Amino acid sequence: MCRMSSKTQPVITYSGDTQLFSSLELVTSQGLPQETVEWKRSYGRPPRAVTLSASFQPFKADNNVCKEQKGLKRLSGSQVLHTYWVECPDVDTYKASVRENIQAWFTQIKLVECSDWLIILVETSDSKKSNKILPRTTVLDKVKNDFGGKTTERCLSVVDPVKGETKSSESWQTFLFRLRQALMAAFSRTLTKFEETVRTQRERRNELNWNFCNYFLLQEELAFAFEMLGLYDEALVQYDELDALFTQFVLNSAVGDAPDWLLAFQATPNNWSGVCLNPKSPFNLELRQKIQDHTMSVVDFRNYLFARQSALLLISSKPAEVARRCLSYVQSYMYELKLLNVNTVDGAIPTWILLTCLQVLSTCQSHVGASGASMESFALLWNMAKDKLFELGRKCGLLPGASVGSAELHCVVTLSSGITDYGDESAIRPTPVDKLKEALSSSQAFTRHYLELSELAMGTFKHCGRLRSARLIGRDLSRFYLQLDQPQKSVSFLLDLLRGYQEENWPLLKIDTHIELAEVFLKIGDRVRFIEASANIASYTGLNSETRMKYFNYLLQSAKDEFRSINCSSMIDLVDMRIDFDTSLDEPCSVLCDSTVSADVEVLSHFPGPVNCSEVAVTVKAVKNAATEGSKLSKTNGKKSVADKSIEPAESEKAHSYISSQNVNSSSNEYIPIKQQLHLKQDGSLSSVALVCPSAQQLLGRKVSHGLLPTELSVTKEEYSHKLSLTDMTITPGVNRLTLKMKADHEGTYVVSQFLACSEQLEFIQSISCPKLSLTVVEVMPSVTVIKSREDLLAGTEQEVELVIRTGSTAFKKEKTLRLCSSRGLTIHLPNTDTPFQREVDLLLRPMAAFETVTYPLKIMADLGFTTSKEATFVEHKLSVHCPWLSKTPPLLDLPLNVYAPFTVQYKLHTAYTKKFVNIHIQGLTPSSRTLEFQNPNVLLPDSTYKNPALSKLEWKNLNGSFQSLKISQEQPANYLWELCGAPVQYEMPLLKAEFSVEYRLDGSVDWKKFSFNFDIADYATLFTVRSRVEPVKGNDFLRAGSLCHMTLTVSDVLQQASSAALMYEVLADQALWAVCGRTAGVFSMEGSSKHSVTLDVMPLVCGFLPLPAVRLSRYIPAEQKPKDGNRKPDLAAASLPRLEPFSAGQVYNWSKAQQVHVLAAPSNNGPTSLDTSNS
Fold it and tell me: How far, in Å, CA of 883 to CA of 816, rounded?
């Protein structure tokens, strides 16, 4: 191929200084293809970047050259550019001799009518150094003036690069660039003229003296030119046009007269070695020579044409396209042989196709880029090679079991003589020719090669996803193994083929495969799988009755010896199933426990005869309740997702009947489990909703193409403990209506799982999948509940409740005893009995029927111990019931009872100088419709209190009404007040433990109940008093807003026993009313005096009646000093720091509390008016 394209290089002629050009020829020819040049094409075709090379020849102006240039019948060897090389040191030398020589050369150029020429002036630095005075005109200017005319760019000057001048490299690159441009323009014009010649010859194709071979060689030169330029796609277009033109001539010859040149293509081929894709092989050169000599056959022509097309595609890195074209090439080749009536040796065409496919596969797979896109074409070529090898084996008697005679041996010899190895010594051994000769040598070698080709074809089809084609090859292999008397190896191929027919629902092809499988199973003695195949054949209604009965009898005979489970979905089909549910129950599709469940089923038998069954059953299995799952929250990326929330079919789809999947679309044979996921944000709002399939991996898993049994034949009998069954019956051909029964002895939800029919040693099993019919066995357990009235239960009063007992689905045939136990603080009483309120009560139950309800009234009373708490308004009590029907140990059932407090009680100590008052505050918690009535309040101290001499004179002064009755509720609280009289006057007062008691009853009730409340009175002696006074400064008579005034604090020691105590005062002023100038707190000691006064500067901020700033008095404990209260433990961590100790309520009395002063407004700029003065 390289030699073919090298002939089409454009020829550049040289004249002038031949010795000079010889020194520059090598660098010129090597420098031209170093860079690309833009080719601007004619006829509106887009420009292309091409690499241009050329060959140099001396110019000869003879007649042959002139005629050739005028005619332009050949592109190879055409002279496209003429150059004249000269080295002239000065203008004088140019005028003396050089100009005349150029003129003579220019005259000869005009004779050949070539307008493309260049004059190259080679300069050296020596010539420039000899002329120290710059001339007015250079030699290049003279050449341009004498010969350039309007095309002065054809005159070039270059510095000799051989002599290594400094500027020679830049000058030489510029020269090469202009030479490429001139050569491209000249070659483009020549190529355009040649295209016109080719077009003219094509238009003359209907003339009698027109010959396709001559035209082929002419247009092929155009393809060679494009190939030389690197335009492989353009070169391929030329061969495609020739291919289409030749095909059109062949098709026209079938319906009309054939041209004379086409008769040469009808010669009998004597070589069927296939296509040679090696571009360096001399085989293709020999074929081209045959085309030039007009001695080729259609086989030779097609081999050469496809070899050239493949070579261009392989150079373009398109091996997949070569394989794709090979398929159509082989088909058109066989069709053309038929149209041209070419006589060939028997077996020559399969041999040629086989070798062509192997050669293409061997060549294409060795190139990088044979990826998945080309696998389909490769698989088809492997399959075609396999089929043609099998055809040759049949002709040559090489198939298993075939006899070899003289005719077969003669065929082998004839075919072997017509195949050669292309004379290529560099080919990798073994070549396709070697493999074919080896395959034709013996039956064992043929078998080995045929199995190898089959395996390659099957594996390639599987790799590109064409499983159906791979299974068809498996069918051929199974038949081949049967001929080899190896039926066990054919089983896997037939089962794989059967699986494909089942998935794609081809019933007729499926049953044919079943028949083949039955014969194979019978040969290898596999009785178990023979039973399965016989059952499928016998149940197919499309076969004739004789065949069906034949295999049905096989099935019945084999059933007595071999145990086997068979999927009977296509043999004995469960068409319809209806379960009789208990409509009296609230839950749909349910029955009571321990009842008998019956179901009416319709079974369709496809067998041609009756089947005696020992049992027909529908198994059911328990399922988990999916509603309890899916309440878990999981955080993901700052969101909460609620997972596993099952999406069930609508209730209308959960019918009471089952319809066979044979009657519905196969795509909906089973519900896909889908669960809902709610993705929540951090604030609880909904972010997104997703539908998730928890079994996606199983549903979307890749289907396995191997295995012992197809999915339709394989079946697994599930474990079960419950079934609807019927024994000893006969299933006849057609529809059979049966009634199945079952004892529902366990509670739970069940779904029908499998249909089962047992006949001797055979089990016909069908999985029930669409839709899943569910059955709920309901066992209603006895229940005990406590029902209260509409109003809340109140503590401290008798409350009536009802104990409701429901028997459920269990009947109490004997008397039963219920023991009621209450929690601490709650007592129970049975009405109409003499028993008091107590924590444990026994209740006797009479015999009761199923689903009977009995109500027993109860009275309860809860303690009021929690009413003194401010936060607890109710207590959760429990009523425990000992139920004898519960299975757990102990059989306890806890019933919650929330008891609410009717009121709360709080104690508070009030002080009026040295007098002490005890206030009891009762806050009602009941609504106004349930008021409480209180009477006879009383406060007592224990007798031990009066034994203390200091407390012997204590007495309570009742400040309440003597016989006053108060009613309280949420809107109306009550307060009781007593004055504590006779208390001793001392610093440390003893603790008083008091008890408050009152009688109460619920409004409308008759009986009064007593309530007691214990409280402690501590630190009830008044120790200090505080007085505050605010006065204007001197010079002002009134207090004015914004004016400074004095605040005087006076602290008095009431008992005069704490004179050495350190005290601290703090002024707590409202910042919106007062501004304290200076410090707001201070420490002082009252040692030596009973009073202490402090004066502060304050400023009122607003006018009006303002409350005085509050003053807080605290006990000041310096550092490293224990507190005066000996009962307190010192804090070691804070002992080194001073701290404050607040006084208890009642120890400090503030005389000025709630006192106000009148503050006038600030004076205006004009001064106060008399009206303001009078008002103040």
Answer: 9
H or E element, residue 650: none
Decide if 158 contacts 125 (C-beta within 8 A).
no
- The pLDDT score that the predictor gives to residue 668 is 38
CA distances from 684 to 373, 640, 645, 689, 809 (A): 51, 8, 18, 14, 43
Distance CA 490, CA 480 (A): 8
For 70, residues 6+ apart whose C-beta sits below 8 A from its C-beta are 112, 113
> Against a cut of 0.85, is the pTM above it?
no
User: What confidence score (pLDDT) does residue 341 get?
Assistant: 86
The backbone torsions φ and ψ at residue 1030, rounded to the nearest 5 degrees and listed phi first, read -115, 125
The whole-number average pLDDT for the span 4-15 is 73
Mean pLDDT of the chain, nearest integer:
81
Say whether pLDDT at 6 is over 60: no
d(Cα 12, Cα 179) in Å, to the nearest integer? 11
On whether the CB atoms of residues 816 and 782 are closer than 8 A, the answer is no
Residue 62 three-state SS = coil
What would the two tokens of residue 367 be?
């190139």
Give whichever of 260-274, 636-650, 971-985, 1092-1106 has the largest mean pLDDT.
1092-1106
Contact (Cβ atoms closer than 8 angstroms) between residue 145 and residue 136:
no
898-916 tens-digit pLDDT:
888 888 898 888 888 888 8
| CA gap 219, 196 in Å, rounded | 11
Whether the CB-CB separation of 838 and 797 falls below 8 Å is answered with no
pLDDT band for 1095, please (50, 70, 90 cuts): very high
**Token pair of 372 as six digits:** 């998945």
Tell me the C-alpha distance between 769 and 668, whole Å.
10
- In this prediction, residue 943 carries a pLDDT of 80
The half-sphere exposure of 955 on its side-chain side, counting CA atoms within 13 A, is 5
CB 637 within 8 A of CB 679: no
Q: Three-state SS for 526?
A: coil
Q: Tokens for 1154?
A: 């709630």
Q: Helices (H), strands (E): how many in the chain?
A: 27, 50
One-letter amino acid identity for 740?
L
- Please list, in sequence order, all residues whose beta carbon lies within 8 angstroms of the beta carbon of residue 437, skipping any fewer than 6 positions away: 416, 419
Q: Are strands 783-788 and 799-806 parallel, antiparallel or unpaired?
A: antiparallel
Six token digits for residue 91: 């203008």
Give me the residue label for tokens 């089959």.
454
List the structure tokens of 695: 């079994």
Length of the chain: 1176
What would the two tokens of residue 1121 be? 């000093």
**Mean predicted confidence (pLDDT) in 335-352:** 88
Tell me the C-alpha distance between 809 and 797, whole Å. Answer: 38
Bridge partners of 14, per DSSP, are 58, 83
pLDDT interval class at 852 (50, 70, 90): confident
Q: Which two tokens stand for residue 16?
A: 């002038």
Strand order of the β-sheet with 79-86 is 55-58, 11-16, 79-86, 117-123, 155-159
Taking the C-alpha atoms of 434, 436, 438 and 443 in order, what is their torsion angle to the nearest 10 degrees? Answer: 170
Query: Sign of the C-alpha dihedral, residues 1033, 1034, 1038, 1042?
Result: negative
Rounded CA separation 615/619 (Å): 12
Give the angle 968-974-979 at the CA atoms, nearest 5°.
155
User: Which residue, 374, 357, 378, is CA-closest to 318?
Assistant: 374
Query: What b/e readout covers 604-641, taking b as 16+ CB neighbours within 10 angstroms?
Result: bbbbbeebebeebbbbbbeeeeeeeeeeeeeeeeeeeb
Using an 8 Å Cβ cutoff, are 616 and 603 in contact? yes
pLDDT tens-digit map of 913-953: 888 899 999 888 888 888 988 888 988 888 878 888 878 78
Signed CA dihedral, 508, 514, 520, 522: sign only: negative
* Contact partners, residue 459, CB within 8 Å, separation at least 6: 470
